[in-house]
Amino acid sequence: MSTSYKINGMTCDGCVSSVQKKLDAESRVKKASIQLEEPQAVIEFDTVIPIDELKQIVATAGNYSIESIKDENEGENIEDEKSMLETYKPLFLIVGFIAGVTGLAQFPFENFSEMMWMRHFMAGFFIVFSFFKILNIKGFADSYRIYDLLAEKWYAWGLIYPFIELGLGVSYLIDIAPVATNIITAVVLGFSAIGVIKSNLNKRKIKCACLGDVFNLPMSKITIIEDLSMVAMALIMIGVAL
To answer: In angstroms, rounded to a whole number, what is the distance separating the alpha carbons of residues 173 and 124?
Structure first.
């Protein structure tokens, strides 16, 4: 899918080269043609990048801004409104499957342990979610740096983060160092939630990286609930352990 854009602030070939390099470095851009004449940018995507994200990418090249060129034959570009259930169906299904399987692990429920279910759920959550991130680590890191406070300053954090999740998942699964595991979970996801909350308060329309680059899920309050729920469970388990 190719889309035309206007880039404000470009005055020379050096400007064109700077913007071109930033767009070429973006994994979701299949091909970008940048020039001084209109249309200044024609971008072909593997995965469509929201305009707010494109603005941030272009801004890293210098004092430039990008805007969509409206097609007169199309009229205004209005996104199809989807229900929350339809939009977040992959996320709800994955979390539901993890919750169900980890509950059934204690069948026939003669002495069902809520704490054991919580530990198994967190193990499944981290292992499954890290899997989707590891499928395309660079794609995840590119999306994550848009809103995470640490990844924004230190790109490598986005490359490391999936493996931290995987390590936490394995730790929960085999129940090793439970207090330390829960403390790390509370700190890591608590800090991550700050960037998510900030993005929601600023009403930024960006992609949530919770399931890596596989699903195009928008950032919303659902992401906040997801992070803070895991923090809450970690804190509960710390309280019980102590």
So the answer is: 8
If we measure between CA atoms, which residue out of 71, 65, 69, 70 comes closest to residue 7? 65
Q: Which domains does the chain have, with CATH numbers?
A: 2-68 (3.30.70.100), 84-241 (no CATH)
* pTM as predicted: 0.67
- Cα-trace Rg, the chain: 21
Q: Phi/psi of residue 131, each to 5°?
A: -60, -45
Residues facing residue 33 across a β-bridge: 42
Per residue of the chain (242 residues), give pLDDT as tens: 568 888 988 888 889 999 999 999 998 898 898 988 777 888 988 778 888 889 999 999 988 899 887 543 443 343 444 577 888 888 999 999 999 999 999 998 888 999 999 999 999 999 999 999 999 998 898 888 888 999 989 999 999 999 999 999 999 999 999 999 999 999 999 999 998 898 888 776 677 888 887 777 877 888 889 999 999 999 999 998 87
> Strand pairing of 29-34 and 207-208?
unpaired
